[in-house]
Amino acid sequence: MLIKLSYNLSEHTPFYTTLPKPKLDQIYDLAKGHPCNSFYFTASNHAGTHVDAPRHFNPSGRAITDYALDEFLFRSPAILDVPLLDEELILPDHLQPALSKASPGTDILLLRTGWGGHRQDERRYVDHGPGFGPAAAELLMERFPALRALAMDFPSVSALTHDAEGAEAHRVFLGCTTYAHRPILLIEDAHLPADLPALQRVTLMPWLFDGLDSAPCTLFAETANHD
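^ that's the sequence the OP posted. Answer follows.
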């Protein structure tokens, strides 16, 4: 069975007040006598569920269009449950109790904090969400040498209230510091509900638009239940 781990992009997608929201305009409309339906849309490439590639923070890093398609397939997923509160900065102590749930061969981590439950409260979800500190980022990179991607159920690695720490955590994950030889992909604003079954494989489908550092994406998984 396939399950979606991402949100549809829409004009109601929770987003920062300092940036324009996604916008959809209809150009041709069958109901108005046009020969077809056609739309025009504008959106930030970091709105909604999206994937940060190294180029987001690393000028010499790969953009999302530089990846081969098989690099978007993950065969060793693991879910880490780390409950977090408003504006909480993720430190190594938050992660340590959950790390035993994942093997060193894990290639994608799904960090489930419960923050997705606040997504209908846009300002709380976006403005007061949790985020990573650099020490926690270093811990995950050290503990999981096969890691290629990290998905999280909050808007960004960077919490608005801990912007400097979040920027440095981005730099750790995206290959600007110690782990320049193996940067990972960061999937932000993922849908990771509490009732997720065991996952066998995870597939990432980013928008491939030349020139973008990162892109909106669809994330889905194959479960052990094939019914």
